[in-house]
Write a structure and sequence with these properties.
By secondary structure, the protein is an all-beta fold. It is 0% helix and 49% strand.
């Protein structure tokens, strides 16, 4: 069965960095595109980034472009989200998910399997 497990969240100061990991099992990363979403209290879920299952093309929300980098390690079956220059507004629970349509449109309905999330808090 498909399973995704996020890790790497924590408390960081503004301007700091974190690297989130999404460990996948039950499939290989070249089968689905993988996306990162986040949701803050009282806010709607936001698509953050996606990495293609085909050629590794990457996509980013405008709010994180230039600060976040998504990557994958197929040997480890893991997708990463490197987050730099973190801002308080980045505070949220971050989820990874499988893009079953492989379109990397970051539309929630396209994503079939979700991890449990990892908390990222950016605060001084």
């Amino acid at each position: 069965q498909v399973q995704l497990v996020e890790s790497g969240g924590g408390l960081v100061q503004p301007g700091g960095s974190l690297r989130l990991s999404c460990a996948a099992s039950g499939f290989t990363l070249d089968y689905y595109a993988i996306g990162w979403f986040r949701q803050a209290p009282g806010k709607e879920r936001e698509g953050v980034s996606c990495i293609s299952s085909s050629d590794g093309s990457t996509y980013y929300a405008d709010s994180v472009k230039g600060r976040f980098t998504i990557s994958r390690d197929n040997a480890k079956n893991t997708v990463y989200l490197q987050m730099n220059s973190l801002k308080p507004e980045d505070t949220a629970v971050y989820y990874c998910a499988t893009d079953d349509k492989r379109l990397c449109l970051l539309l929630g309905a396209d994503f079939g399997s979700w991890g449990q999330g990892t908390q990222v808090t950016v605060s001084s």
